[in-house]
Amino acid sequence: MSIAYPVNQLSIISVVAMEAYHVSPGSMWTTGNLLFRSDRCGQDLLVQIHNLAHAVARDGRKYLVYAPDHPKAHGLVSKPLDSHYCFELFPLRS
């Protein structure tokens, strides 16, 4: 399977109630394929989601990491704060 979107490495910078997902500050994650487009951008979701993490890519773009209630998502997704698109998210293997 190929990925039609750029793969980004994200560094988690802060975490709120994400212990069940083993997300911790400083952990590294990588994005995968596009999963879905939501009706709101990441910035707008910050006030609605209570279990989340903030992440940053190497280029400085900021991301929201969370577990959405969506049939195409199985686990965590990454969503740029300035975007409506959600991507797969996987722990970065060393």
What does this structure look like?
The structure is a single chain. This protein is mainly β. The protein has 1 helix and 6 strands, in the order ββαββββ. It has one helix spanning 42-45; strands at 9-16, 28-37, 52-57, 62-66, 77-80, 85-91.
Give a quick rundown of the structure.
The protein has a six-stranded antiparallel barrel. Strand 5 (about 75-80) and strand 6 form a beta hairpin.
Write a concise keyword list for the protein shown above.
94 residues; mainly beta; 6-stranded antiparallel β-barrel; 1 helix; 6 strands; 43% strand
**How would the global form be characterised?**
globular
Q: Helix segment count?
A: 1
Which runs of at least 5 residues are low in confidence (pLDDT < 50)?
none
Output the helix-strand order. Answer: EEHEEEE
In helices, the fraction of residues equals under 10%
Report, as a whole number of angstroms, the end-to-end distance. 22 Å
Structural class: mainly beta
Main beta sheet: 6 strands, antiparallel, barrel
Q: Which band does the percent of strand residues land in?
A: 35-45%
